[in-house]
Amino acid sequence: MSPAVDVQHIAKAFGQFQAVREATFEVRFGEIFALLGPNGAGKSTTIRMILDIIRPDSGTIRVFGRPLDDAAKNQIGYLPEERGLYKSQKVLDMMTYLGTLKGLKPAESRKRAMSYLERLELADFAKKKVSDLSKGMQQKVQFAVTVMHEPRLLIIDEPFSGLDPVNRMVVKEWLYELRQKGSAIVMSTHQMNQVEEMADRLLMISRGQQRLYGEVQAIREQYAIHAIIVEGQGDWSRLDGVTQVESLNEQRRGAVRLHLRPEVSYDDVLAAIARDDSLTIERFERAVPSLDDIFIQVAEEDAQEVRWLNRREAEREVEKEAV
Amino acid sequence: MTHQRRWWLVARHEFISNITKPSFLFATFGIPLFIVVVMVIVAWITASTIDSGEVEGERLGLYQAVDLLPAELLARENIRSYKDWESAQTALDDGTLDALIQIGPNYYADGKVGLYSYGTVAEDLQERVEELIAEALMIQVGEARYADRLLNPARMSIYVEDTGRTLTRDNVFGLFILPMAFVVLFMLTLQLTSQFLMAGVVEEKTNRLMEILVTTVKPLDLLAGKVLGLGAIGLVQVVVWLAIGLVALRLGGDLPFLEAVALPLDLLLVVLAYFVLTYFLLGSLLAGFGAIVDSEQESRSYAGIVTLPLVLPLFFIFNFFSDANGPLPTLLSLIPVTSGMAMIFRMSFVAVPLWQVLLSLGLLLLTTLLVLVIAARLFRWGILLYGKSPTPREIWRVIRSGQTQRQTQEVRA
Questions:
Q1: CATH architecture of A5-220
Q2: Which residues of B165-188 are buried (b: 16+ CB within 10 A; e: fewer)?
Q3: ipTM more than 0.95?
Q4: Whether B411 and A100 lie within 8 Å, measured CB to CB
């Protein structure tokens, strides 16, 4: 089975500005795929290219195994980051209309709209105008509109922005359910904890360049350093094989990261701690970096590169002037 | 699902959601009611003025230096004759007379007649004096029964054999008022629907619904659906106005100048064709502009520019009167946008060669299709332009290339 989305070497420039330099990835059915990157990294541009709102300068994009066509559009649900609805229309009428545009029959669209409103506990507002709804309610309606036609590919920009914890849970459950049913879900977000919790695979782009791509867990492993995180009391530097004790500014006091010599195994350290009566531990784990750490690290590397390039540029200017 | 269904869905949605708007209901029912009320007031005021200006009861005096008006005519009309000018003037001064007619000593040579009164002289009185003098002249010739003909030698009817229409002096005004009424009607309808159209596009653009819509519906379908749906709204409005107008006319009784308003079928069909095509042309243009502007306010100025050429023929109305088949009227009736009004004018006044009508309609149709495609391109490209206005050069590039954003400066990345 071909992937839901197959992107090969796309690039896109707006005038002088290179929004996307190079990206190659695929999104599979039955997975939640996270699209990460700092502001202005090219996430929205990439999404818009997948949706054929804008066309790449080079590279190919296939959706459901072929270039995006109208039949495919009926099976896509898209929720842009900045959202809006027809404010002066009645909730149910508007949902029915947008459902029919996605190919549902009017009666079916109305039925589904109503059942989704019930599920979101908004049934009482079906006949109300959209503008009468609170912002959070409107967000939920927008989400319902996006998934009403049970899309095989769902693309959401910041799915949880503006939602309270309860509604965040509702939307999250809904996304899991869609994944269970085999839909491919692309979510673009800044919230790394959500990605760690929900996403199966991820793509991180920075400055239009693809930086990380693959299984979320594998990427975290890839960035793992040979270290452990411990919490407890005692002088950790006394332990054999520890090269550096790094205290972590986490909320919990006393957490430190112990960097280890390559030949020392985690079991060796644990055994050593157990043998040493002056040390007590409450927590002991491998130091797998959070996506937040990785994100910051990658962004920082890029920033350094930029600084280096700028310096080179400046030096060249000086050389030119000297000549 | 096929595309026909898509644009149909959009059209139906636009129709239903706009027809219930208060501004539509007000314009559709409020404006004609307002006009009817104004007309009733005007009619009432006019009627009361005529009552007070009663000519029959006025006391008229006459001093004639030559023997023009015979005694029996003066007796019949109850006009008092004075032998000398001073006593006639005294009678006017002391209020014995309302008005005084003075026939000069050289009347047969110079035709000088004076009409004296305090206050204004009713127009009807002047006419009556003219009629009296004409009658007196005919009596002197010995043919009193031709007095009417002397005043009004020919009531001419012009038979236009190739259109089968008859023009009389009375209904020339009717012929003129017909195209005028249609043009005014069309302008009002166009203004309202185009405002809805632009407001809708600008709303969808600013709240980003457009991004969802274009990933669902082809821009051309979206555009066609909007133009059609709102066009249907305009049609409803025209029908309502016509119905109210007809009822008002029926209630108002037969007005002589409206006799010619009986609309020939051929003209009606041509008028409809121009209405529909011109509406599509302007509707697509406005929707295209709606997509590239950033606020409704900005869109209004574009709307003004786009709809201005529509009324251009009105400025040359005298060219149409004098020679409706002349070069300028012919040219205006061929250029799309102005062709609707110009051709309706021409066809009302004269017989227009069939090939010109067909050429004009053909040009209009071609232009409309072209504009529809261009507007769809602008539509697609414009929806991602937030917070900035494109330069004419950028717009031109998009229209030519049909490509979206390839060269544009900046879109939200």
A1: 3-Layer(aba) Sandwich (3.40)
A2: bebeeebbebbbbbbbebbebbeb
A3: no
A4: no
